[in-house]
């Protein structure tokens, strides 16, 4: 009997404990049917509900003040070649580079797919 890999760290050393599957490397616990549900939850959507993917181009829908600076990312600024972050604890789930400003992270709720 082959057990599935850990959905969090892809470790092959998972084991069963009752009805839970456990990864000894990252301590992640899940039920066998939950792996598909976690993948569905990790889908990142823009302000209009469109699904975003790595490499997409988005535009900013609200003026965003840059913390620690007097600069502002203006409405309509196009951001090319975004990278999605699935483990963003602070809500900043887009990693990007904005021309004239540099590398930064954005929240998907403030962008729309271009």
From TrEMBL:
Chain ranges of the Protein YjdM N-terminal domain: 2-30
Listed Gene3D superfamilies: 2.20.25.10, SH3 Domains
UniProt domain Protein YjdM C-terminal: residue ranges: 44-114
Any Pfam family the entry gives: YjdM
Organism superkingdom: Bacteria
PANTHER family in UniProt: PROTEIN YJDM, PROTEIN YJDM-RELATED
Similarity annotation: Belongs to the YjdM family.
NCBIfam families tied to this protein: phnA
Protein name: Alkylphosphonate utilization protein
Species in which this protein is naturally found: Acinetobacter pragensis
